[in-house]
Amino acid sequence: MFGFQFISPRQLREKGILGMNRRNIHYIGCHNDRKNFPLVDNKLKTKQIAQQAGIAVPAMIATIKNQSEIKHFEEMIKGINGFVIKPAHGSAGKGILVIVGREGNNFIKPNGEKLTLKDIQKDISGILSGLYSLGGKYDVAMIESLVEFDPIFDNYSYEGVPDIRVVVYRGFPTMAMLRCSTKESDGKANLHQGAVGVGINLATGKPINAVQHNRAVSIHPDTGYDFSKLKIPHWEKLLPLAASCYDITQLGYLGVDIVLDKNLGPLILELNARPGLAIQIANREGSVPRFELIDKQAMNLSVEERVQFSVENFGQ
């Protein structure tokens, strides 16, 4: 199930693997109107439009927009032990700070590292100055509640919250991948930083394949648990949630990141107008044939009808 083999460029083309140039020109360029990009490039705006549409998201604790507000940070998180700080315009997981607890006057990261109040205020200052934002523009620091992830993931994530990335094409869920944090990724579910990507069967919510740094793995590198034994809960709710994000953004090529809270169920973490291509490696399948099949379908279908089509045609 989780074997590794080398594939030639010709085999990649035959399997319908989507490359970056084609993605940018034929999918992002043709189906994502630039006027809609701010809806997803700005995580604060994403959260606002999702809430307006009745879509569940992690709770917002506070926002910091100006350097003068940083001195009030301690008051903002009074009585709160776990939280996440992220830049509103960040990308690829950069600038995200996860705090899972406190010890005296120190704040504890997922890897056990201790930070002082001044350390965190310095990080927030960097966010506001545009250190992590697209184009280096001045940014906003978002402080969100820490998701209490579903205990089924206890063995498949290292001191962090795993998330599910669903690529949605023209409103149809097309591919899904569970991203599991590792010690290397510092508790963040970001493949560029060393998280594991697990391809997920759209029909069952069960694993197809798992990769770390684009190489196949069968067990989590830190916990040693077998990915093939995993089944994602709430799968029947998760795909409609992802598909509905097309309706609120009108972005035809969209990455939807979802987390599973043990009390609240699936929550939209963020949206991405330029989702990466590694999801194909995790699924051992190219995206192009699926996109081409969707292009032949009617575009006036409901969320439920689009999900049903995807489950019937892309469930492996």
Q: Outline of this structure?
A:
The chain has 316 residues and is an alpha+beta fold. The chain has helices spanning 9-14, 20-31, 38-41, 43-52, 73-76, 117-128, 235-249, 278-283, 288-294, 303-314; strands spanning 60-64, 83-87, 97-99, 101-103, 106-108, 114-115, 141-145, 163-169, 172-180, 196-200, 207-212, 215-216, 253-261, 265-272. The strands form three sheets. The chain has a seven-stranded antiparallel beta sheet with strand order 12-11-10-9-8-13-14. Strands 1-7-2-3 form a four-stranded antiparallel beta sheet. It has a three-stranded antiparallel beta sheet with strand order 4-5-6.
Explain what this protein looks like in three dimensions:
- The protein has 316 residues and is α+β, with helices and mostly antiparallel strands.
- It is built from ten helices and 14 strands.
- The protein folds into two domains: 214 residues, D-amino Acid Aminotransferase, Chain A, domain 1 (2-Layer Sandwich), CATH 3.30.470.20; 86 residues, Dna Ligase, domain 1, CATH 3.30.1490.
- A hairpin with a 6-residue loop joins strand 10 and strand 11.
- The chain is globular and about 55 Å long.
- The model has no long low-confidence stretch (mean pLDDT 90).
